[in-house]
Amino acid sequence: MTVVTRFAPSPTGFLHIGGARTALYNWLYAKHTGGKFLLRIEDTDRERSTPEAVEAIFDGLNWLGLTADEEPTFQFARRDRHAEVALELIKAGKAYYCYCSPEELQEMREKARSEGQPMKYNGTWRDRDPSDAPQGVKPVVRLKAPQDGDAVISDQVQGDVRVANDQLDDYVILRGDGTPTYMLSVVVDDHDMGITHVIRGDDHLTNAFRQKALYDAMGWVVPTFAHIPLIHGPDGAKLSKRHGALGVEAYRDEMGFLPEAVNNYLLRLGWGHGDEEIISQEQAIEWFDVKDVGKGASRFDFAKLTNLNGVYLRQADDERLANDIAPRIAKQIGVDAIDAAQKEILIKGMSGLKERAKTLIELAESSVFYVTDGVTSFNEKAQSLIDGAPEGLFAELAKELDTLEIWTEENVDASVRNIAEKLDLKLGKVAQPLRAVLTGSNSSPGIFDVMIVLGKSQTLKRIRKFDAQ
Length: 469
Prior knowledge:
By secondary structure, the chain is mainly alpha-helical. It has 18 helices and twelve strands. The protein has a three-stranded parallel beta sheet with strand order 1-2-3. A three-stranded antiparallel beta sheet has the order 4-5-8. The longest helix has 18 residues, at 447-464. The relative contact order is 0.09. Its main location: cytoplasm.
């Protein structure tokens, strides 16, 4: 059997970070088993589904590298097929028309509530003669659910879960206007798409019992279910916007995370492989099995994600990082785009820059000084270092460095040390003010590395701005 998994988001908003983890688990399980990963857009809520949300889902999945193996299926386009199945069930005597009015249904709910019973449909029209149907009423179609015994779901995460069939009711599969309900659409689509494994949040566990009844009624093979625990915030409450329940694009654009770091972090939210923390995509595909996902909810921790992102930044290709931060830097310095020469400087300096950053935001901010013609601003500590520099330091530095014919790290290192010795200063008393005038900050990559990346002309230009001090 070829494993076929699916991710089936509703395009009513962004791709939630919890949805991204569900997609990741489905994608990994398909790859681990040599199967297929499919995408279905559940766009039957026409009022809330938008093209922008569909694009946001595609964009988020593509950024994470979770691409489907076939073209996506759009659920709304299959509504005729869904209705067709409902009519098949009526013909087979496994579904029926229900003519109850909204008032009658409300009366049922109130009666059940007053008696302390589950609020469910009482089967009024289950075996009633259709000739009793009132005139002018558009009936719904209800599934004839089993009434005796138990329904059992052998869940790969939750284990065997059992529910008494008398706790379930004959739910609606086709509305009075002929449109299918979510329960019907999901089952028909999963069957027609050949889905073998349904991996989704455990908030859908109760749906699985209702859906199993529909599979059984049609004589279809029930897929293997795996209901994964939801992600909680650090306080143990359900993940919300205040915790970080944002769209995937926010993690990319507003927070500056790398997709491989996000995938690694989401993978570890509920699943693990020994003490391994840094798990490559290749390792994840080799090791991941949905049955190893824990039953308990995981807590989202931004600090851990940020630290993990720092690890991936340090491992990332320098040119790739330069391309990633180029638009951010352009925005900071007020230009449409940085030019090729500026990009080369960024690449040249990246090995030193990325060691000190944990996000692309930090990396971009710490890189700006490399691509400007001179330093445009100084932080408070840098300004203090410049103001407190020994008298004549910058003039001596400019004079000494200007004599260098070969601009190498070894030579600039020697020159700066010569100045420190000449002025009877510790190296730090020279290097720290020098760092401030070259970078505008009291913190940067190694100062000699910075001087090599900037080059002789730009280094001297920045020092000479202060050589009167």
